[in-house]
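NUDIX hydrolase: structure, please.
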Amino acid sequence: MSSEVIEVCAREEPPEAWDAAVFLAGPTPRTPDVASWRPGARAALREQWRGPGRLVVLDPEHRHGIHDDYTGQVDWEERCLNLADEVLFYVPRALDTMPAFTTNVEWGMWHDSGKAVFGAPPEAPKNDYLRHYAAKLDVPTATDVPGTVALALERIGRGAPRTAGEREVPLMIWRTASFQQWYAAQRGAGNTLLGARVEWRFGLHWGLHVRVHVTAEDRVKANEVVFSRPDISTVVLYRRGRSLGDTAVVLVREFRSPASTPDGFVHELPGGSGPSDPLARAVAEVAEETGLSLAPQRLRAHTDRQLNATMSAHRAHLFSAEVTEDELAVLRASGPGGVAADGERTYVEIATYAEIARDRLVDWSMLGMIAQVLTDSEDC
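Here you go.
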């Protein structure tokens, strides 16, 4: 695929497909005798773009200098800001000719979006507040147009081909394994993504308000948000008893902010997410949260499923291992575990399956995983 840069000016319709899109945010000159910074930005983007596909530049200045519809202009900018993979802020503020009042508002809306870069000449006045938040939120910064363009393109990389509704999923979410897993499932079912809007993002966690054409019902579903995070590995450590109810299960107690339990803690299975494969992550989480070191071959893989399919797209990869009486004794005597640097502190608890079910010790997802493992173990 050949490299291409397409410039879309105010009120013009963006193309139906691209590999990356950049919105040029910043002040527009109030009079024709003041030169705009945007032609230089467009030239720098054409010069620096090395992707194999199509880069779209979304420029809120009119191609012929016509400003005839304020509401239409605002609507176009809002739409294109949401479409952009990167919002390139360049603020050569001049209080008499380019005061950048609207830019201040846009910066306030997008500075923590995860897709903003910031540039401004050192001598431009009244930018200290903007620079403060750029530094606080680790927004990449530069002091000239080519440098700011380079920052945006560095994060874009080679981009990713998207068409129609896919364009509304920015690269920072499109590239996550959790989004691709969810989207592959939707496409496999024959459904079409008609549109999306980022409602929330925190690291690799995200929430998308999506519009999906449900092919099996020939209708559009547009009133839900898909949340997701990296998949987790979860481990059921158990010691078989005389009956299913007598089987001992290892839990960890940990303070988690969303918990609405009587003690404010969650009581759950050892587990978590990370960059390693699910089995390696399972072994690591058991060691971190319980202090028990297990050889990978001791873990039995079960299946992976969503934990809350009406809300979150991420999945739990389920593993189990039967522990010995000696290992149970070590676990009962263990001290706090977890990774302190991540704000994690865990305590081992051991309960029978009957106690877990009767005393409501775990949530429904944990109870289901425990039941799956103990049912599977009965068949062995």
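Notes: Residues 364-379 form the longest helix (16 residues).
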